[in-house]
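Per reviewer request, we include the raw input and output of the structure prediction for the construct analysed in the revised manuscript.
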Amino acid sequence: MNARARISTLRRLAPLALAASLSACAHQVGSAVQPAAPGFLLGVWHGFIFPVAWILSLFLPDVAVYAVPNNGGWYDFGYFIGIVFLGVGSHRGSKTVYVRTRRG
C-alpha cells in the first residue's frame, strides 16, 4: 500500500474513530439511577423478550428494547444473559454435522 492510499484510508476512518471516541464518553447521570431502577432480573427478562420488544418498538413509541435508567453493570449482564442464553442467541435444537472422508 503506497503513502497516498494510506492517507486516503486514514481520512475515511477519521470520522468513524472520532465518533467512537466521543461515544465512549457517554455515561449515566448518577441522579438518574433510582433505587428502584431495573436490575439483573429485569435485565434477563428484557433480554429474553428483545425480539418482541424490538418489533413493537417500530410501531409504538412507548416501547423500548432497553430500560433507561437502569442500575448499570448488573442490568447489562442480565440483558446479555437474556439475549444470548434464553433469547435470540440460544440454539434450541442440536445440529449434527456428518463429515465423510474418502478413502483411497
